[in-house]
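Progress against Task 2.4 (sequence-to-structure conversion) is shown through the following example record, which the project officer requested during the mid-term review.
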Amino acid sequence: HLITPKTTKRILITNPSDIESILIPFFNDHPLLTLKNDDFLDFKNLFELKKQKYHTTPQGLSSLLHIKNNMNRGRKS
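Structure tokens generated for the chain above:
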């Protein structure tokens, strides 16, 4: 039985290092129970690839765009 929260929380991340130190660990420890978890896994993958500067090569940029375009509403369930 899932409990629906009564409130919504929003966070604003302005420092990219907070993605790695706060956001990613939080959702690793508390995975989403919907298809949004797949989007989180893609987001985490994109973050790591960008951190490694994979996006600076034509092949890398193409790969990142492919992942991005298949996230959210572009995802085939």
